[in-house]
Design brief:
Residues 10-24 have a biased composition (Basic and acidic residues). With 310 residues, the chain is an alpha/beta fold. It has ten helices and eight strands. It has a single domain (27-282), classed as Protein of unknown function UPF0759 (TIM Barrel). The protein is 35% helix and 13% strand.
Length: 310
């Protein structure tokens, strides 16, 4: 039986043209996780307790990618602590458990998937697109039918939850597959990673053909196969790549598309500084709103509905 997202195709290199906008999109940008020992004394003050790092981080950036959920879903009390430590408007992009994508490879994952989706629901408006990342060995040729069924299932069971899929198999880095996702209201992650094709033009073609207004989800990873000695400073500047992505992000925002962008330490060596460098470049094309929030626990009289599932 033929797969709904067609055969493998080459990465498109067509011209990138922004869509017209009714209003400017919102940029949420941050790092992959917020807790790294090498950030102490550089990004965090040396005396900052570990349980106060998220609160400090949330005063600097308006979103974060949480990788801890890849290994174990956070307990309700952990989620509550996270939510109480960040301001309104801050968002978390939680990575799907490896049991779903890497260990069971979508086989008998209904229960784990439901638990993951419930965690995303419990975040309420603090949920950025959940990251469902598949390994390079998960290909269209070997796993495409299960992936298609999984996408159809999510379209039914999680229509209200923001989700994005990242693939690392080249035969899934196609406009046809991205269109398949977008038609089901599931996002696709455009990745900047050494050794991988640039799929941004494919995402753009799929977004235009489906007239979708889903956010653009971007991850700047860099050369994660060549570890740096630490995560303290910019060690391999990527000015050309930052210029490229800043222009793309600015065009997307002008077109009315929201953007979620997450930077990893290997991209340049110290992700917080890279985020600042990226924001500075984007702001050369259009002014970005300041992020100067007041961080504190929510008003006891208000009921946000978060964590009601627990």
């Amino acid at each position: 039986m033929a797969l709904p997202f067609g055969r493998s195709e080459s990465i498109s290199d067509r011209n990138e043209k922004p869509m017209k906008a009714e209003k400017t999109g919102t940029l949420r940008v941050g790092t992959s996780s917020w807790s790294f020992p090498d950030w102490r004394g550089v990004f965090y003050r040396p005396q900052t307790p570990a349980d106060q790092q998220l609160s400090f981080y949330a005063q600097q950036f308006n979103s974060v990618e949480a990788n801890t959920s890849f290994y174990a879903l956070p307990a309700p009390k952990t989620l509550l602590r996270w939510l109480e430590g960040v301001p309104e408007g801050f968002t978390f992009s939680l990575k799907a458990p490896r049991e779903i994508t890497h260990e069971r490879r979508l086989v008998d994952v209904k229960q784990t998937t439901a638990a993951y989706l419930d965690v995303l629901r419990s975040l309420g408006p603090a949920a950025a697109p959940g990251l469902i990342q598949f390994p390079a060995t998960f290909t269209r040729a070997s796993d495409g039918r299960r992936l298609a069924d999984f996408g159809d299932s999510l379209a039914t069971s999680a229509a209200e939850i923001p989700l994005s899929v990242e693939v690392r198999a080249f035969d899934l880095m196609t406009t046809a597959f991205i269109r398949f996702l977008l038609e089901r209201r599931i996002g696709f992650v455009a990745v900047e990673r050494t050794g991988q094709p640039d799929t941004f033009a494919n995402w753009q073609a799929a977004a235009e053909s489906t007239a979708t207004r889903l956010p653009c989800h971007i991850r700047l990873i860099g050369n994660d196969r060549d570890p740096l000695p630490d995560d303290k400073v910019i060690r391999r500047p990527q000015d050309e790549l930052l210029d490229k992505w800043a222009k793309r992000i600015a065009d997307l925002l002008k077109s009315g598309t929201d953007v979620f962008c997450y930077v990893h330490n290997p991209f340049e060596g110290h992700a917080p500084e890279t985020v600042r460098r990226l924001r500075d470049r984007v702001s050369q094309y259009l002014p970005l709103p300041d992020w100067n929030p007041i961080v504190g626990p929510p008003d006891e009289e208000e009921d946000s509905g978060q964590l009601s599932l627990f």
